[in-house]
Amino acid sequence: MIVQTNAFAAVLLAALAMSPQSTAVACSERKPTPQTGPGPHDFTTAPSESKLWQEGDGGEPLFLRARVLDTCGEPISGARVRVLHANEHGEHDPNRWRTHLDTDAGGTFEVITVLPGYTGGLARHIHFVITHPDHAELVTRLFFKNDPGSDAETEDLTMVLEEIRRGDRTAWVAGYEFVLPPG
Question: Which residue in 53, 63, 64, 65 has a CA-CA distance of 20 to 30 Å to 158?
Answer without folding.
Answer: 53
